[in-house]
Amino acid sequence: MAQLLRRLDDEIYVEYNMFGLHGTDLPAWSSPTDEIYHFVAAVRLESWDAEPGPADASWTPVSSTTFVAESGVVAIVSTMEGKGHDFLIGPPRFEYGVDMYLREPEPGDGHATGECEEAWLLRFWPIRDVFDPITHAAPFSYIARGVLYYSIDLEPEQLVQPPARREVPVPVSAVADWASLRADPDLDTFDGWLRMVRRKAEDRGVTVHELLREAGIDIEDGVDLTLASCTPPRARAGRFQDPLIDRYHAEQARWGSLSGRDLGVAQLREYADGERIAKELCRSGTQTFSVPVEGRGALYVPPGVSRRVWRWEDDMLGGELMDEGLTVDRQVLARNPWTRQILVSGIVTVLRRDHDRHGCGDIVWYVVRDAEPHEAARVLCAEATWEEDPDQRRALDEVAREKLIELRATYRSRES
């Protein structure tokens, strides 16, 4: 029997009766109510672990289709920059089904502003793993300095070509393998938060009330631990109209994490979505850590995507790990005897940006976890599939040299 994994209520302003589903290969959609062109829609997004049965009788079926998810995170987007909250439906590079339903808005739909003219229900479920390293993990095209600087079109032979054969079998995962397709009772509930607080207090040898007071919450010994008593007055519900932002602000303020920060609604929205999805991508007790991602493509790595990263670590005595992370296909690539550091490579799954660490230039810090076996198998398959052939590389280098000679001759003739 299909199980509901998570649900999110949102609102989106629809313009010209057109909206899209960001993070998918689907074309633009339109509301079945053709006479409405500009309106606020209440949107309920649901993620299921298998195809669900029909929704209750209050919802009218509209359409059903399939698509491939890019990262496993989707969002409703409208024509003119309007975007809903990010929502995790499952793993990247899976084929999914989606059912769309329509009804008149009811209390509790969306953000309950009373401005919604119709309500939609979108139900997502995984169908199968469709990862293909040739389609989904191709490296960047062959790069020649002159071609980059002068914007000369690349010849077909200068592009990275798909290999004639795959070096390793393409891994095919099952739905049950993925943390994002398994329900976790501790996620986003006060009871789950309280269990975490009790474990932390026990580890430190203090009472829960003492730990809460250290975090700046005015609570006396013996007071019942409720959502109201564990939340500072300034962080209680009602500060923001958007309930997801309001809840995130309250959770962060409960621990004093927002002290000294003056975050606007847009930043709180980004942080709230990132924190929620990062939790949903982990199993209980998962170790997370931060890594720098540098170079091409570092600016935005979607959550849920697995990739190889590199970083310098302190060379610990006895070979101990710096933060218990970067253990999957771990490779020591270089040693710096002067600084006692090692350059290490490993495979991780990206959870969210690390807002507490700011890189410089093209370096971006991300909160990650070690990749699970089925995730690492995709990265290893892509690396083996696209491993560069030395003879092909020498031939491409020769093509690039000829191209640059022609380029320089062209510019000299123009100057004369």
UniProtKB/TrEMBL annotation:
Source organism per UniProt: Nonomuraea montanisoli
Protein name as catalogued: Uncharacterized protein
